[in-house]
Amino acid sequence: MTGPARFIEALRNCLAAHVGQEGALGPFIEALRDVAPRLSGRAEDDLKHPLLSQLDGALDAALGPPDLVESVAALASAGGWYQVYTGGGINAEMADFMLAKQIVGPKGIIASTSMRAGIFLLAPHFEYRMHDHAALKIYYVHSGAVDIQNGTDSAPRCLRPGQYSITPSGVPHALQTGAAPVLLLFVWIGNVTAPIWWWVQGDDGVWTQTLAKKP
Question: Would you kindly state where each structural domain of the chain is located, as residue ranges?
Fold first, then answer.
């Protein structure tokens, strides 16, 4: 079994093991089950980024099923990371604090236009500002602790390894890390190529949207 296929199977089994949560997790489990592990042939870039110095510590702190921990460690250590945001404005503030590696998706080892799955590395003391996208998404905490807020009026919820958060399509959400780097495993399903939008709150308390990233 290839590294990507092992990751997909291990993540699917991990989600399926959450007894009593099959209703909410069902779409993600089904999507992972339906992935055909055909390698895309895309060459992976050898990114040089300061945040990667935190990767080994984050991997060492990972908790979970051994097969999942081992598959994530192998893939994460093999390169292929990319900056989620580049450019000016708010995007420039995000560039140094978050990296991703797609296992499945438009930039993935396994090509897909209907799903994204992979690994997300967040720096310590980092706020990923309120944003939204069309895809249905799950974050599964692999290491570290992160506060996740779904909705502009909801309270953040602290998640630790083995816990997850599901964000419905179009719901604005934000993340805040603490003193340690965070590794999240993610799965997006649905319209994964739609733009990402920032939500910015003005002095009058009104939230407005502005484009964060084109597909």
Answer: 3-196+205-213
Rounded Cα distance between 125 and 138, Å, is 22
Rounded Cα–Cα distance for residues 113 and 190 (Å): 9
For every residue of 160-185, DSSP letters joined together read: -TT-EEEE-TT--EEEEE-SS-EEEE
Cα angle 119-87-153, degrees, rounded to a multiple of 5: 65
44: its two tokens: 């992976």
Any residues with CB less than 8 A from the CB of 161 and at least 6 apart, and which? Answer: 61, 62, 63, 64, 141, 142, 143, 144
Q: Mean pLDDT for the chain?
A: 93
* 99, containing H or E segment: strand 98-104
Q: Tell me the CATH number for domain 3-196+205-213.
A: 2.60.120.10
Rounded to two decimals, the pTM is: 0.95
Quote the pLDDT of residue 18.
82
Helix (H) or strand (E) holding 146: strand 146-150
